[in-house]
């Protein structure tokens, strides 16, 4: 695609249209902010948002909260991803177990996990543990289902090669299964990261005293709208960036979408 | 996921055995919890006995107006679903029609799909107030990207031969769209709608729980705040059952729409 000289010419109008759309949106926003049609501060001026963004990023406090949330999400991804991988491998390798339990995971997977938060509070308390638990629960399902599907999709030839070399179970897992399942695993982790992030942050907005979710809900309850927008902007940039990073790191851009 | 759709082979005795194992394991798990709670190993103020949860099902249904709440959540889902169908498909068609717009915005929509949109709920609370519209709009916005993306994918992947048939009949652009492109894209569009409706349901129940307003989500929050432990567990089970029935119905509808290969 990049070899095509016409493609480089096409970037022009697309880029221009993008800039035009952004400019129109920002102008409409600014006009709306000054029009008085909406309640004051519901749509703050761009200057106020930029100032809040600057304040947010230059303050030390924000990085503490970011660290707390990042640690919670990483812990959730670690625990949920690991458990999901083990369950996924077991289900993918054994059709009998898959028939018995996979439909359970398949239907439980997309249910709203935040409703389990009251249970998590009772089990793990109101601290970060309950947020990690909710993130773990959210992350487990996509990883398990993706790994199970990936395990079933492994080329039979590769497994036969492993068998003909008389590889033991451990060697089969590390030399054949895991490398062959790299893409489904990374894809599962990417999905898991997304839902773990949502689970953890939503839990923080419901009940907590630290973390990015707390900052967002705190800005809402003090009606500091510029600060809330600033928090949301940074969060969205980080979330989309992390998602793209996992995809790129796992080489997802090198394969076609399923 | 798609592997499930291909289960046309009649089930054999092994399938029945494995299904039985699934059910048996679940029953065993709940019996074990029951025994552990009854013997005091597990604190009953943290995990209620499954028998207690089953017992409180009827109480929650009778006393908490579950039917009314269910209808409220369903109507919110329906409104979000209608909006998704209209704006999502229209957005996808528009982006397919104007290639430049598609090239400029498709990555933005894809990025939106991976962004935690539901976290914008405090913003929606400010704009729409603590009302059903906050919940509906949240469900709608969070579920919009898959509908738009799948509509574009469906129309773009119409088989060339079908498009050529339309051309050979000298169809106008409108006729080409309604007679060829749209019917051919319908199964893929429905995949997008199914994903969208699942996202909408998740977000609607989630936001109901978070802002303590509306139907089934609020029920869980209320029971939890009253520390009605068995009731909370029963309500969670009820919401999960409703979600599962909803997913199954959507899956059936999708299979019905899918053309025979």
Proportion in β-strands of chain A: under 5%
- Which sheet architecture does the biggest sheet of chain A show? none
Helix content of chain B: over 70%
Globular, elongated, flat, extended or rod-shaped: what is the shape of chain A?
A: elongated
Looking at the structure, the CATH topology of the largest domain in chain A is MetI-like fold
Identify the overall geometry of chain B: globular
SS content category of chain A: mainly alpha
Strand content of chain B: under 5%
Q: Name the poorly predicted regions of chain B.
A: 1-7
Q: If you average the pLDDT of chain A, what whole number results?
A: 87
Number of strands of chain A: 0
Describe the structure.
Chain A is an all-alpha fold and 258 residues long. Chain A has 2 domains: 41 residues, no CATH class; 200 residues, MetI-like (MetI-like fold), CATH 1.10.3720. In chain A, 80% of the residues lie in helices and 0% in strands. Chain A has 11 helices and no strands. Chain A is elongated, with a radius of gyration of 23 Å. Chain A starts with a helix and ends in a 9-residue tail after the last helix. The relative contact order of chain A is 0.12. With 261 residues, chain B is an all-alpha fold. Chain B has 2 domains: 37 residues; 199 residues, MetI-like fold (Orthogonal Bundle). Chain B starts with a helix and ends with a helix. In chain B, 38% of the residues are buried. At the A-B interface, helix 1, helix 4, helix 5, helix 6 and helix 9 of A face helix 2, helix 5, helix 6, helix 9 and helix 10 of B.
């Amino acid at each position: 695609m990049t070899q095509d000289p016409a493609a480089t010419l096409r970037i022009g109008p697309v880029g221009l249209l993008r800039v035009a759309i952004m400019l129109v949106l920002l102008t409409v926003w600014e006009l709306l902010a000054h029009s008085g049609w909406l309640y004051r501060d519901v749509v703050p001026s761009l200057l106020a948002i930029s100032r809040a963004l600057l304040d947010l990023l230059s303050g030390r406090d924000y990085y503490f909260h970011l660290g707390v949330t990042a640690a919670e999400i990483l812990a959730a991804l670690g625990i949920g991803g690991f458990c999901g991988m083990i369950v996924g491998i077991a289900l993918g390798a054994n059709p009998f177990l898959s028939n018995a339990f996979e439909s359970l995971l398949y239907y439980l997977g997309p249910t709203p996990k935040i409703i389990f938060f009251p249970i998590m509070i009772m089990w793990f308390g109101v601290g970060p543990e309950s947020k990690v638990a909710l993130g773990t629960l959210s992350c487990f399902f996509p990883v398990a289902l993706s790994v199970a599907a990936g395990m079933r999709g492994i080329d039979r030839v590769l497994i036969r090669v492993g068998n003909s070399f008389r590889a033991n179970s451990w060697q089969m897992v590390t030399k054949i299964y895991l490398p062959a399942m790299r893409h489904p695993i990374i894809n599962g982790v990417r999905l898991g990261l997304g839902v773990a992030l949502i689970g953890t942050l939503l839990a923080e907005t419901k009940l907590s005293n630290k973390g990015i979710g707390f900052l967002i809900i705190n800005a809402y309850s003090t009606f500091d709208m510029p600060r809330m927008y600033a928090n949301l902007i940074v969060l969205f940039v980080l979330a989309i960036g992390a998602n793209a990073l996992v995809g790129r790191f796992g080489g997802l851009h090198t394969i076609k979408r399923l | 996921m798609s592997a499930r759709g291909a289960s046309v082979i009649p089930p054999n005795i092994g399938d029945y055995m494995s299904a039985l194992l699934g059910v048996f394991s679940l029953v065993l798990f709940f019996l074990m919890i029951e025994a552990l709670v009854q013997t005091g190993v597990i604190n009953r103020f943290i995990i209620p006995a499954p028998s207690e949860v089953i017992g409180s099902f009827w109480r929650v249904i009778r006393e908490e107006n579950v039917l009314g709440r269910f209808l409220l959540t369903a109507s919110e889902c329906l409104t979000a679903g209608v909006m998704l169908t209209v704006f999502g498909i229209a957005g996808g068609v528009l982006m397919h029609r104007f290639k430049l717009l598609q090239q400029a915005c498709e990555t933005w929509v894809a990025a939106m799909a991976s962004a935690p949109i539901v976290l914008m709920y405090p913003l929606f609370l400010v704009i729409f107030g603590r009302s059903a519209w906050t919940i509906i709009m949240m469900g709608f916005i969070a579920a919009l990207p898959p509908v738009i993306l799948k509509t574009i994918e469906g129309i773009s992947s119409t088989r060339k031969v079908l498009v050529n048939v339309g051309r050979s009949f000298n169809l106008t652009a409108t006729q080409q769209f309604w007679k060829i492109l749209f019917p051919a894209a319908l199964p893929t569009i429905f995949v997008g709608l199914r994903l969208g409706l699942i996202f909408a349901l998740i977000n609607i129940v989630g936001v109901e729980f978070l802002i303590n307003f509306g139907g089934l989500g609020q029920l869980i929050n209320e029971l939890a705040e009253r520390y009605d432990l068995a009731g909370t567990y029963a309500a969670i089970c009820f919401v999960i059952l409703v979600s599962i029935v909803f997913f199954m119905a959507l899956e059936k509808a999708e299979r019905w729409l899918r053309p025979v290969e």
